[in-house]
Amino acid sequence: MSSGHDTAPRAAVGPLTGGAAGLAVLAGLYLIVGPWLARYGGAAELAVSNTVAGLAIVVFAALRLPALTWVVPVLGAWAAVSPLILRYGDETAPSDAAVTGNLIAGIVVVAAGVTLLVRRR
């Protein structure tokens, strides 16, 4: 029974939404630890980009704030394409494992973010 005192808007909660948020959080965590798991070599720009994007994905997906849900798929798209866009200068280019890991994590985050957006309405 509701007491009627809780009038704050809540994000949609359900098995699909919770599962999508969980997948986005896991993919975000992978982006954070990926530079050490996939041996990014000298690709420091990608490691920093992944850490920042991964932290943001974890926070936004876990909190599921309706006004900021759109950020999750955008960050996922960035994670997927960032190995191809970032310039590495004199540094070593990222390994194939790093590029593949980013692509997969990015696709998972985009799909999860779109699910969160659709379920939000």
TrEMBL record:
The chain crosses the membrane at residues 12-33, 39-60, 67-86, 98-118. This is SPW repeat-containing integral membrane domain-containing protein. Keywords: Membrane, Transmembrane, Transmembrane helix. Residues 21-113 form the SPW repeat-containing integral membrane domain. The keyword Repeat does not apply. Pfam families: SPW. InterPro entries: SPW.
